[in-house]
Amino acid sequence: MGELPTRLEVEDLQRNLQQVQDLLRRQKLVEGLAGRLAELRAKLERLHSADIASILESLPLEERLAVWGLVGAEREGEILLELSDAVRESLIASMDSQELVAATGALEADQIADLAPDLPAQVVQDVIRALPQEEREQLRAALSYREGTVGALMDFDQIIVREDATLEAATRTLRGLDELPAHTDQLFVVDREGRLRGTLPLARLIVTDLERAVGEVVLSESVTLHPEDLAEDAAKAFERYNLVSAPVADHFGRLVGRLTVNTVMDYIRQRSAEAQLAESGLREEEDIFAPVLNSFKNRWTWLAINLVTAFIASRVIGAFEGSIEKLVALAALMPIVAGIGGNSGNQTITMIVRALALGQIQASYWLKLIGKELGVATLNGVLWGTLLGVAAFLLYGNVALGGVMALAMLLTLLLAAAMGVTIPLIRARLGRDPAVGASVLITACTDSGGFFIFLGLATLFLL
Question: Is the pLDDT of residue 4 over 90?
Answer without folding.
Answer: no
